[in-house]
Design brief:
By secondary structure, the protein is an all-alpha fold. It has helices at 7-33, 40-61, 69-73, 77-112, 124-127, 129-150. The two termini are 28 Å apart.
């Protein structure tokens, strides 16, 4: 199987690797010294958010989001196309709104000079990547919808031999 790796998948893997290293260091440090790293919780939360958004974007790229396969696969190519367009539109709308809201949050953190509780560094250091990731997810969903809109009807025919032809 020869497929391209989406940049989102690379980001997800790097975040997961960083989470594993941070957690392992924290566990070993607690075991040896009865103390924990103060910074590990804040950074772990940020890494988890980034990993989740990058993974969601990778799922959009692969058109692999959770859906009711029985409803999708048993339908005609026209219904499959409509469901894919609807899914792309709703995904783009939701993450477009989230992009706006997260950008406002980062702007407020900059404006009010908020700092993180554990490390005392500016909070926007942690939240700044989130609007970019949600914007990337919005663009990926729009691209998926664009491809579905311009796809040939044959692209929506089921290749599953267990299903009857639509």
């Amino acid at each position: 199987m020869n497929r391209r790796v989406a940049p989102e998948e690379v980001v997800s893997v790097l975040c997961m690797a960083a989470l594993v290293v941070i957690t392992l260091l924290n566990v070993v440090t607690r075991y040896v010294t009865d103390q924990s790293f103060a910074w590990s919780e804040e950074i772990s939360i940020v890494l988890m958010v980034v990993m989740t958004l990058a993974g969601a974007s990778a799922a959009v790229v692969r058109d692999a989001h959770i859906r009711i396969e029985a409803l999708y696969d048993s339908g005609s190519p026209a219904r499959r196309r409509a469901l894919r367009l609807l899914s792309a539109a709703i995904t783009a709308l939701v993450f477009g709104v989230l992009t706006f809201l997260f950008a406002r949050m980062v702007a407020d953190e900059l404006r009010w000079a908020e700092t993180s509780m554990g490390l005392g560094v500016p909070r926007w250091w942690f939240t700044a990547p989130v609007p970019f990731l949600t914007a990337a997810l919005t663009l990926r969903a729009l691209w998926l919808g664009f491809r579905a809109w311009h796809a040939a009807p044959a692209d929506f025919v089921s290749t599953d031999p267990a299903l009857p032809p639509a």
